[in-house]
Each structure stands twice: as C-alpha cells, then as structure tokens.
Specification:
Blueprint lengths: L1 E6 L3 E7 L5 E8 L5 H13 L9 E5 L2 H7 L6 E6 L15 E3 L3 E2 L5 E3 L3 H13 L4 E6 L7 H13 L4 E4 L9 H30 L7 E4 L5 E3 H6 L7 H13 L6 E6 L4 E7 L2 E2 L7 E2 L2 E2 L8 E3 L7 E4 L2 E4 L17 H7 L8 H15 L3 H27 L3 H9 L9 E4 L3 H12 L3 E2 L7 H8 L4 E8 L4 E4 L5 E3 L7 H18 L8 E12 L2 E13 L14
Parallel strand pairs: 1-4, 4-11, 5-6, 5-9, 9-10, 13-21, 21-22
Antiparallel strand pairs: 1-2, 2-3, 7-8, 11-12, 13-14, 14-15, 14-18, 16-17, 19-20, 23-24, 23-27, 24-25, 26-27
Helix pairs in contact: 1-5, 2-5, 7-13, 8-9, 8-10, 9-10, 10-12
C-alpha cells in the first residue's frame, strides 16, 4: 500500500492506493498554515483509519514549506558570496538578494586567472557575521569547471568561524547560468536547517503511528527523494504541489495521452502540460519570487485565482482579490468567494447553500442586480483570469524544446488540448473554462485529491551529467561537484559513458535508489583547435531517471 499526502494552501489531501492502482482511502484535512506538521499527521490519521500500518510500503509527501518560507520571508539570515571575475557588474545580474563580491577569477575552461585573497575573505566574513548572518552561500563563476576558489573560501570560513553554515554552488548544480546557480545555492543555504527540522518532526510523527515504511518527499520535477537526501537539497521541493497534480493526472489518463492539467485550489489555479504521456519540463528551471533557479521543474504556472479568492464590488464591478483571506463564506469565511458562486448556481455541493445565497445577495445588492446574475458575474471573472493565464502559458510552452519537437510531430493537434481539471472546485469551474477556450474537458470525482495521488505514485528521479575537457585532462560531475583527472589520455565518448554510468550508480546508491537504471538523454562532443591543431575535445553527456508514475488508476475510480 502506498500513501501520498499533499499540503495545499487550503486543504491537505491524502490517498492510500495499492500497487495495482486501486484507491483504498482518501482524506481532506484543513491546512493549518502555522502548523503544517499537524495538517500532515491529521490527514494521515484520516487516511489510515481502518487500515493497518504494517501494509504501508511507502509514504510520499509534497509540502509547501519551502515555497512559503521564500514568499513569506522566513528564510534564515544568509549572505550570498559571489566570485564573478572580470566582466559584467554583479549588482546588475538577476540575483534574488544583494551579492557580496569576492575577488578572484576562473575562466570558462577552468583555468585560474586571479587567486582568491584571504585578507579580503576575512574582512568580508567578519562584516557579515557582525551583521547577524548565520550562513553563507558561495558561488563562483565557472566553479563547475574549477571549484578551487569555492573550496578555499569554505576552508577559511570553517577554520576561523566553525559555527558558520557554508554552502558551495558546485556541489548543487553544474549547468551554465551563474545567477541561477547562485540563487539555487542561496535558497539551499538559507532553508536547510528549517527543512531538516520539519523532516525530523515529520518522521517522528509518522513513526509514532506504527508506520516503518520508507519516507519520501516530492520534488519540483515530479520525482521523489528519501528524507535524508531531501534534507540535503531542500530547494528541490519548491513547487512540489503543482508537480504532484501533474503526476496525479498522469495516473488518471490513458497511456500516451495529451492534456492540460488545471489544478484549481483555494488560492491559485496551477497549469501544467502532459504531452503524449510525458510531463513537459522547464528547460530553464523553477522560479520562485525573485529567485530564478536551476532546480529541475515541470513547466507550470499559477493563475492568481482559486475557490477561496475573496470577491468584492469596486466601482460597480466584480473585483477578485489578490490573496486568500480564509475559507469561502458558505464554509464559515468572512467574504464571498467563487466557491459561494458555484454553490449558489448548483455547480458544487461544498458548504451551506443558505450562506452561499446570503453571500451572493450581498454582492447583488451592491451591483443592483439579481443574485443569479451576481453569481454568474463572479464566475465570468474567474474564468477570464484562468483563460488569460492559459493563453500566456501556451506561449511559454512554445519556447520549450520538448514542446517544439512535439509540435513538429503533431501539427494537426497543435493547441487542441484537452483540459483535465482537478482540485476541490474543478467539477464546477473546468467546464466553464473549457467552453471559453473551446476545448474538451474532464473533471472526475477522484480529481479532488489528484495531488495526493500523484505524490503516492511518483517514481524517483535524478540526473547525473559529465563534462570532460580531454585537452586539460579533467572531467567533472555537475550534480556532485566532483572533479577528477581524465584517464588514459584523450579517450572518447565510450569512455565518458562508462565514467558517467559509474558515477550515476554511486549517486543512486547515496540517494538510496539501489535499483535505479538511468537513460542517456544528451551527448555532445566538440574539438578544441589551437593553431589549426586539434589539442583535445570537450565531451558533455547526461543521464537521467525520468519522472513518471508506478501505475495508473483503474478506470472505474475515475468516475
């Protein structure tokens, strides 16, 4: 039996499903924003009612903890140290926080141009510690080609300030794009203690309920990580909620089907895309607040409207609020919401019909119209906001390489997407949005807990990539920061594959994924020519465990 729990902005959803795709139990528990742990364990208790903890083979959780910490400015006080070398002024680069510049330079092939100055590092660290910083994130330009400068800063910091938290960018991500790598490092450094504390509490809460099965956390790319690995890279859990909804829909769709995922929550409506049974990944990385990162993520976006969006009348027109203020009026809230309009129009059964009528009557009075007209006006605004986000997202999807390939292979299906609505308000809102967009749609009852279903059935993912400079006699593994001599002279692609496979298996073992079998996803080789003579080659090769689900939900459960 597999357990999935998803912490949403309004509800925490839970699902128990067996490995044949049969749903055994579902639950919805109010999310307590100041106590996510109670939301998780309360939902787990509901799911496990009548089930034996001894039957549980895995528990997977998607959580908004890191997302909330970033957006609510609850990260630990951490400084960003950058080693940019000569060139563009680092203060104009898109860092999420103000950078502190360390002197030194590495070129694009990993050769040192200027050394790090210990005296400057000492002075800078002293200033930051006196200002109350408890950690530093260090990112050097081209550190993925030569990590010596980052290591020197770390060595000095730990020698003189042993209590200081230090995070280095080359150990987290190795792709080009200096600002995104720096932002990823900063979010990791500033959230690690917070996230580890949460995971420790989560594990204790689950273990006290007699569940001894392995525990996993869902990532933004739809994969799962064991708790210990997730504690090392908390930034990867950003947007795990939208990823869970995409996987939940993947489990509900027939194989190789294409659909837009529309997850209508209380605060937002998340949009994602499945192309021929494969979730569309962002080629750039996740973005959260001011931070553009290198975190592998599904290509998703959020429309700022949900079932609990407050509604008011401004200037004789319906106005949708920007932030959730509590539950719907029909569920005891203080202001009318789209959920109240749906309840009044008979498009959902959540909450008190009497209170929903009262909420619509208050809006109708301000608009000087009948209550049914006020309710329809609310839904028109909701549908328009979601449809606008959908059209904008299609433009973003068209920039993704995987989408372009699919578009070439399926020109007759271009933009003729089926909308698959999930979430608490999906059955009422999905047909209205589909009508506006002239699209087919589906919104099954089990879609109310699609996020939890996706978390339960998600498979592990991770990537490993090798870059070799045979002329310089070096190769590196981007995701672990390892940099080693290139063996046996110049070698070739076959040698690169063998080396990458070895490191892939090692990384899988470290992550607790002993049975992982990777797939080569990228191979490139370039000759390095100097004075008309080839002096080596640059070899780049990538291997991945791709996102997916263990099984699909049986057809009768979709009704």
């Amino acid at each position: 039996m597999l357990i999935g729990i998803d912490v949403g902005g309004t509800y925490t959803d839970g699902v128990a499903v067996n490995e044949e795709g049969e749903i055994l139990a579902v639950a919805k528990y109010p999310t307590l924003r100041d106590n996510l742990l109670e939301s998780l364990t309360g939902c787990l208790d509901q799911v496990m009612s009548g089930l034996s903890p001894l039957q549980v083979k895995r528990v997977s959780v998607s959580t908004t903890l890191l997302t909330n910490a970033v957006l609510q400015d609850k990260l630990e006080k951490t400084a960003l140290l950058v080693i940019p070398g000569p060139g563009l002024d680092p203060t104009v680069l898109p860092f999420g926080v103000r950078p502190n510049v360390v002197a030194g330079a590495i070129d694009f092939r990993g050769r040192e141009l200027a050394p790090v100055q210990p005296a400057q590092v000492k002075s800078l660290l002293m200033e930051l510690i006196e200002a109350g910083h408890s950690g530093v994130a260090v990112a050097g330009k081209f550190a993925q080609r030569n990590n010596s400068h980052e290591l020197k800063v770390e060595s000095y910091a730990l020698e003189h300030y042993p209590g200081l938290r230090v995070e280095l960018s080359h150990r987290l991500c190795g792709s080009l794009n200096f600002p995104r790598r720096a932002n990823t490092t900063y979010l990791t450094a500033s959230s690690r203690t917070l996230f580890r504390h949460f995971l420790d509490q989560l594990e204790a809460g689950i273990r006290t309920r007699g569940i001894t099965a392995p525990l996993y956390v869902l990532k933004a790319d739809g994969g799962t990580l064991p708790l210990a690995a997730a504690a090392r890279t908390p930034v990867e859990t950003v947007y795990s909620g939208p990823a869970a909804s995409v996987l939940g829909v993947l489990a509900l769709l027939p194989e190789a089907e294409t659909a837009v995922v529309m997850d209508i929550g209380g605060s937002t409506t998340d949009l994602g895309l499945i192309l021929d049974g494969k979730p569309l990944l962002s080629s750039r990385g996740a973005e959260i607040g001011l931070f553009k990162t290198q975190v592998h993520s599904f290509a998703v976006t959020s429309a700022n409207v949900g079932g609990d969006t407050p509604v008011e009348v401004v200037g004789g027109r319906i106005n949708l609020g920007e932030r959730r203020c509590g539950p719907a009026y029909c569920l005891g809230g203080s202001a009318p919401t789209p959920t109240d309009a749906l309840r009044y129009l008979g498009l959902c059964e959540h909450g008190s019909l009497e209170l929903a009528r009262e909420g619509m009557e208050s809006l109708a009075s301000s608009l000087a119209v009948a209550p049914p007209e006020a309710a329809r006006a609310v839904m028109e605004q909701v549908v328009e906001r979601i449809a606008t986000s959908f059209r904008q997202m299609v433009q973003c999807w068209e920039d993704e390489p995987a989408y372009r390939v699919w578009e070439v292979l399926h020109p007759h299906r271009m933009k003729r997407f089926k909308i698959f609505g999930v979430g608490g308000a999906a059955q009422g809102i999905t047909p209205l949005v589909a009508e506006q967009l002239e699209a087919q749609w589906e919104a099954p009852e089990i879609g109310r807990v699609a996020n939890a279903l996706g978390a339960a059935l998600a498979v592990p993912t991770f990537s490993c990539s090798l870059r070799a400079d045979t002329g310089a006699g070096l190769y590196s593994i981007a995701e672990t920061g390892v940099q080693l001599p290139w063996p046996n002279g110049r070698g070739g692609m076959e040698q690169a594959r063998n080396l990458l496979s070895k490191h892939f298996r090692q990384r899988a073992w470290e992550l607790g994924l002993t049975a992982a079998a990777g797939e080569i996803t990228r191979e490139e080789v370039f000759n390095v020519v100097r004075d008309s003579v080839t002096e080596g080659r640059i070899i780049e090769i990538g291997m991945e465990l791709k996102a997916g689900v263990m099984t699909r939900v049986k057809g009768e459960e979709r009704q």
